[in-house]
C-alpha cells in the first residue's frame, strides 16, 4: 500500500526582514501579514484552545486573520488542527468562532484611531 502525501514542502520559517516588523502566515488562507495584524490561536498545555489577542498566552500557537470566515476555513479544511496538533470538536470550533468574532470586533475598534 502506498501512501500519498508527506510532500517535502519544508516549513518555511524564513524570517523576512520587513520594516513592518515580524511577519506571520495565516494558517487558513496562507496570507503573509504583519504579526500584529493577525490573531494568535493558542493551545494551552492542558489542551484548551483559545483566541489570544495579545499573543501572550503560553502554549502552541497558530496565527489567523482576525476574521471569523478565515477561522472557519481553517477549521473546515483541518489546517488549524494540524498546526496546533489537536483534534477540534464541534463545541471547541463554536467557541473559537465566538472568540474570533469578538477579536475581530476589538481589532476593528483598535485600528480606527
Ligand atoms: Zn486568513
Task: Summarize the topology.
Elements (H helix, E strand, L loop, with lengths): L22 E3 L6 E3 L4 E5 L5 E4 L7 E5 L3 H9 L2 H6 L5 H22 L2
Antiparallel strand pairs: 1-2, 3-4, 3-5
Bound molecules: zinc ion (ZN).
Describe the structure.
It is a single chain. This protein has a single domain, classed as 2-Layer Sandwich (Hypothetical Cytosolic Protein, Chain: A), CATH 3.30.1230. Helices cover 33% and strands 18% of the residues. It has three helices and five strands. The protein has helices at 68-76, 79-84, 90-111, and strands spanning 23-25, 32-34, 39-43, 49-52, 60-64. Helix 1 runs antiparallel to helix 3 (90-111). Residues 26, 28-29, 31, 64-65, 70 line the site of zinc ion. Zinc ion binds at residues 26, 28-29, 31, 64-65, 70.
Q: What is the CA-CA span between the terminal residues?
A: 58 Å
Which CATH architecture is right? Answer: 2-Layer Sandwich
Task: Quickly count the domains.
Answer: 1
**What small molecules does this complex bind?**
zinc ion
> Which percent band covers the strand fraction?
15-25%
Number of strands: 5
Largest sheet: 3 strands, antiparallel
CATH superfamily: YlxR-like
Q: From N to C, what is the helix and strand string?
A: EEEEEHHH
Which structural category do the helix and sheet elements fall into? alpha+beta
